[in-house]
Specification:
Blueprint: H1 2-15, H2 27-57, H3 63-77, H4 89-109, H5 126-129, H6 134-154, H7 166-216, H8 219-227, E1 234-248, H9 250-254, H10 259-279, E2 283-288, E3 291-295, H11 302-321, E4 332-347, E5 353-357, H12 359-369, E6 376-379, H13 380-385, E7 390-400, E8 404-414, H14 422-428
Helix pairs in contact: 2-3, 2-4, 2-7, 3-4, 4-6, 7-8, 10-11, 10-14, 11-14
């Protein structure tokens, strides 16, 4: 199979030379015009073969056909010029050249040599016009059928050249049938080769789209969207555990760094964050500048979600403490976690975005903004879901905008041993 694909690739490279005269950027137009150019090359070669054969057989007796062959080679050769006058100008031109020009041969040689069989190539002209111009193709097909019918009905059997030379007529007839077979084969092979590469490109593009979709959306959400693209994704998660992370000291330090240094530092850091998020089965919602937002796995239960987010926050703290300074500043994190109702859904059409809304999001954001550098502030709702999983330091009540006073605590560590990924993530990126 690999050899076949390799052969197809070599054939495709060879056929790229047939794009002479094609200037359109439309892929469908370019494909049809390539078919026209292939037919033109086939016409040149076919007439060259007939002309050489005629000159070898009887140059004086077949001089009209020799001259005809040379003229037809020139006419077929200038076919690509006509592409500049319209996307089907070259197709119409070559149809007229083949149709009208061949009448001379039919009446000169006669139907005994089967030269009128060339009119059966009219069906292949669909490759020149395609679905977009199917009406034009229908007219061309009727034109070919009419020429074939007229030739069969009114053209002489032997014409005016070498009337008594049946060997010549038999040889010419065999040559005509072989030429028609070869021309049809060339067009079909190229059509199927183009289809093969188009399908391969489409499959690769589909694969990239699938990968991209699974990158920007949780896998479960991406699977639902792929199964039913018109379905609205809107889920109530209760309770959902949301984590907000802010990098303390990053903004003032970034003022002294180059854009490449700023983006490079954030990129390598958030890549490590992403690995930790994936390890704990959580979902990154988005980054907002140097802030990072996470929700517990959308398919996890409330307790499991709280536990995974709590351990994630601890590992993120450890990870940042291991980072080298950003310029001259040693960075730190300020985190906030809350568990509560959240609505999760996909918005947008051209650019999908998975996002969450609700009290869980708003309160978690307040927990982060009211937290302290190097601290993870959590609410009682979070502690109720994971009371024995972590160590807490009570902070008392704080005033939360839009909510009022809320009792909070700092999450200081895990009570039970948990496999930390922070060091592995740092070394793996």
């Amino acid at each position: 199979m690999s050899r076949f694909h390799s052969a197809l690739e070599r054939a495709e490279k060879l056929l790229r030379y047939l794009e002479i005269g094609i200037s359109s950027t439309d892929a469908e137009i370019r494909r049809r015009q390539r078919f026209v150019n292939i037919a033109a090359v086939a016409g040149v070669l076919d007439n060259a073969l007939h002309t050489a054969s005629n000159m070898d057989y009887d140059p004086m007796g077949l001089m009209p056909l020799v001259i005809y062959g040379i003229v037809m080679m020139v006419l077929f050769g200038i076919t690509p010029i006509w592409h500049r006058f319209g996307d089907i100008a070259g197709a119409i031109y070559i149809v007229l050249v083949m149709g009208v020009g061949h009448l001379f041969v039919v009446w000169t040689i006669g139907t005994a040599s089967a030269v009128h069989a060339y009119y059966t190539l009219g069906g292949a002209s669909f490759l020149f016009f395609g679905v977009r111009y199917w009406r034009v193709f229908a007219v061309v097909l009727l034109f070919a059928v009419a020429l074939l019918a007229v030739s069969m009905k009114f053209a002489p059997e032997f014409g005016t050249l070498l009337i008594d030379d049946r060997a010549f007529h038999n040889a010419l007839g065999n040559q005509v049938l072989m030429s028609v077979l070869i021309i049809y084969s060339i067009l079909i092979v190229y059509a199927l080769t183009s289809l093969h590469f188009a399908e391969a490109a489409l499959a690769a593009e589909h694969g990239r789209s699938e990968t991209l979709l699974e990158t920007i959306l949780p896998r479960a959400i991406a699977d639902r969207l792929k199964a039913n693209p018109d379905q609205r994704i809107a889920d109530l998660i209760n309770p959902a555990t949301v984590l907000f992370v802010d990098i303390v000291g990053f903004t003032p330090a970034a003022r002294q760094m180059t854009p490449d240094e700023v983006v490079g530092y954030l990129d390598q850091l958030f890549r490590q964050f992403d690995r930790l998020v994936e390890h704990y089965g959580a979902e990154k919602i988005k980054t907002i500048g140097d802030a990072y937002m996470v929700i517990g796995g959308v398919d996890q239960t409330g307790t499991a979600s709280a536990r995974s987010v709590g351990h994630l926050a601890l590992d993120l703290m450890e990870l940042v403490q291991r980072q080298p300074p950003f310029g001259t500043v040693k960075l730190n994190l300020r985190c906030g976690i809350h568990s509560g109702k959240a609505i999760a859904g996909v918005i947008g059409r051209r650019r999908y975005s998975f996002d969450i809304w609700g009290d869980a999001v708003n309160v978690a954001a307040r927990m982060e903004s009211h937290s302290e550098p190097g601290k993870i502030q959590v609410t009682e709702e979070f502690m109720a879901l994971a009371p024995d999983e972590f160590e807490y330091l009570r902070r008392g009540s704080i005033e939360v905008k839009g909510v009022g006073p809320m009792p909070t605590a700092f999450l200081t560590g895990a009570r039970h041993a948990s496999t930390s990924e922070a060091e592995e993530c740092q070394s793996g990126v």
